[in-house]
Amino acid sequence: MKKVVSLLLAAVLCLSLAACNDTNSTVKTNNDKLVVGFAQIGQESGWRDAETNDIQWYAARNTDTIELHFADAEQNPENQIRAIRGFIDMGVDVIAFAPVIETGWEEILGECKKAGIPVILVDRGIDAGIDSSLYTTMIASDHVWAGEQAAIVMEELLGGSGTVVELQGTIGASATIQREQGFDDYMAANCPDIEIIDHQSGDFTRDQGRAIMAAMLETYDHIDGVFAHNDDMALGAIEAIKEAGLKPGEDIKIVSVDGVKGAFEAVLAGELNCTVECTPLLAKQIFDTAVLLKAGQTVDKWIVSEDDIYTADKVTQEIIDARTY
Ligand code: AHR
Question: Are 105 and 126 in contact (CB under 8 A)?
Fold first, then answer.
């Protein structure tokens, strides 16, 4: 009886895995449709969920022309590599993926190139030392720009002097490296009286943002500003600052990146001073680009998203209501 139950459980597990992650499938793809394999990073932030929803929603609305194979790598680059290999075996037309970290992609991208499958990098890039002919294009925001804009806003909020801590994203991710570069370089070149006293990774998650902010508040007597590499970590930091009996947005100025609805609400409440946008709504661009690539056309090497800067004077209830994520 025990054996029968175990077999049944194993069968149910296989079925549910196939439903979420179809990269193990040996079924060959449908030639009439645009077939895209997308390997997502995981579910570390509200922003990431918005990107996933946008891609799945777009594909679901266009099932007559698009076949999407989706894999969730659960924050593990090895899972992404496995998923991409699965897409190659399936013979998809185009592979898209958001690289968890910048490095380690040479071998799998070489396999894509050998199979003649164009690759779109989505929302994050790969290390500049990797042969750029191994991918076709990147659709992403300019993360260095976002870091610089955050620094310019922080400089103004602090009146040119004070101490700042940085809540970094996933270590080794291009979004982390480039946001830090944009922020730190601007500060080094323009703000001699602003000192960045600590950098720590909160892995782009709300819980870790809260935990590292709480630890920093214990460690340092005085913190004037927080630069969080994403909104989720800023929202976690706001909780920690309140728990420490301080007023976020007043006692400690906070600037973050993403522009999700929850961050806009915090700006309107005066608890977050600014969020620099990084749009997750990339589905239309991804599928339009994939159509061109399937037809053998060339596209720009970097398709840059247009983003905005949301300070308190810009965020209204109307803007919040219009935000879908
Ligand atoms: O690569 C984009 C970043 O990844 C977003 O800023 C962050 O919220 C996400 O997890």
Answer: yes
Residue 146 and residue 129 in contact, taking contact as beta carbons nearer than 8 Å: no
- What confidence score (pLDDT) does residue 32 get? 87
Q: Which of 47, 170, 275 to mutate to test the pocket of ligand 1 (most atoms within 8 A of CB)?
A: 47
Alpha helices in the chain (DSSP H): 2-20, 46-61, 77-90, 106-115, 143-157, 174-190, 206-219, 231-243, 261-268, 283-294, 317-322
Q: Which residue has the tokens 């915090």?
A: 266
Instruction: Name the closest-CA residue to atom 4, ligand 1.
Output: 48
Residue 274 in contact with residue 153, Cβ under 8 Å? yes
Q: Which regions of the chain are under pLDDT 50?
A: 1-20, 23-26
DSSP assignment, residue 195? E
Angle value at C-alpha 194, between 189 and 199, nearest 5 degrees: 95
The atom number, within ligand 1, closest to the CA of 46 reads 8
| Ligand 1 geometric centre to CA of 296 (Å) | 30
Question: Do 167 and 212 meet the contact criterion of CB atoms below 8 Å apart?
Answer: yes
Structure token pair of residue 131: 């042969």
Res 21: pLDDT: 53
- Provide residues with CB under 6 Å of ligand 1: 44-45, 47-48, 123-124, 175, 204, 230, 232, 257-258, 278
Model's pTM, two decimal places?
0.91
If you take atom 3 of ligand 1, which residue's CA is the nearest one?
Answer: 175
Query: Quick one: pLDDT at residue 79?
Result: 98
